[in-house]
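Sample pair:
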Amino acid sequence: MSEENIAQLLNDKDSENTKKSTKQHRLIFESYLKEKNIRNPTTAVELAAVLRKFYAEARKKDGHMYSKNSLCSVRFALCRHFKQELNVDIIKDVEFNEANRVYEAQCVELKKQGLAKTEHKPPIADEDIEKLYRCVIFSTENPTTLQNKVFFEIMLFFCRRGRQNLRQLKKTDFEIKVNSQGKRCVVQAEEGGMMIANDSPFCPVSSFEKYLNVLNPMNEYLFQRPKSSGKEEVWYDNMVVGENTLGKKMKVISQQAKLSTTYTNHSIRATK
């Protein structure tokens, strides 16, 4: 999958609320620059030096420290921003190793102060998303791997929590329509959200449409137990996939695809 296709996939799923949230987190960093009278960094070296201090010194308007989760959210937002602006990855690039050590040390300190009550789930790295689409894990020619792809994209475009009533989702919860730009799209009427077709061979709408066509007509639910192969007209048994299986699905996909880390379903929702 090309970088352009990945960027389009992620951009299509970003709701206005997501974009607004990203902008708000970026403004925290920009306010810090203004307060410290630091010019906006234009190179990786300059940015790494600023982030090294920012992670240790960032404070709320009232002077209190951010929670670990809040600092983590700011970091991920900045990562997305600077990938676009400077073509750098502030989490993975070696230039930011020292800044990231400061970030990790600050997280330890925040935890000591009781400011880390819950563990933030990491978003899925672009490199791992590309790997998923390039390997057989998301092949549309097999019942299990087709379901992997549809599951991932339903989570990416629609679901707000890692285990949000996945087992109760029905075929009729979704519709294939044409949007105002004349593009085919999948919509979930009750919860909102939209998955838009693209011209790539990895089009999520095409995969979803194929998936619907090979589901067991005797079963109303969306996630049915896959058969061993796609040689029959119906690829799925008249049986719903279990809640625990769905809840651990991204973990299993991560291991089978040998991704850089073992992600959870929550990580899909954290991917912006």
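The chain has a mean pLDDT of 88.
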